[in-house]
Amino acid sequence: MKVGVLSDTHGLLRPEALQALEGAEHLLHAGDIGHPDVLAALTERAPLTIIRGNVDEPATVARSRRRNRPDPRWADDVPERVTVTLAGFRVHLVHDRNALTESPAADVVVSGHSHVPKVERVGGVLYLNPGSAGPRRFRLPVTVAWLDLGGAQPAGEIVALDV
Length: 163
Description:
alpha/beta; 5-stranded mixed beta sheet
């Protein structure tokens, strides 16, 4: 199973991100969605699992309302963390990996927040941060990721977007 992974769109769903994730059987968004229109566009392409990031918190969203943003309650029902089973693998989503106080019972941990793309295996768990698919931050690349759940072990791959 090929899973498209993105995070930190901050209300900007780039066409390059959609193109890079074309053909995904499932999509994961690791928070800082920024606008419900992002979710609408993603759900048109594949089943979607999402979590809320700090940008999606009611107080943050309410402050952004001054900039013609949607009702701040759009993210109220979006969970802060979730574990899903895809292709027999347990995948845990948490926006900020530093918020983990213990290793979750998962084969894969997907996080965002730092905007730094990274794939690493620690103690048999694959940790995947797809980086940021939204507005460029600092000098970091704009990226998404693929999570391959078709083998004996999950594998991740970062995809840099040409923006």
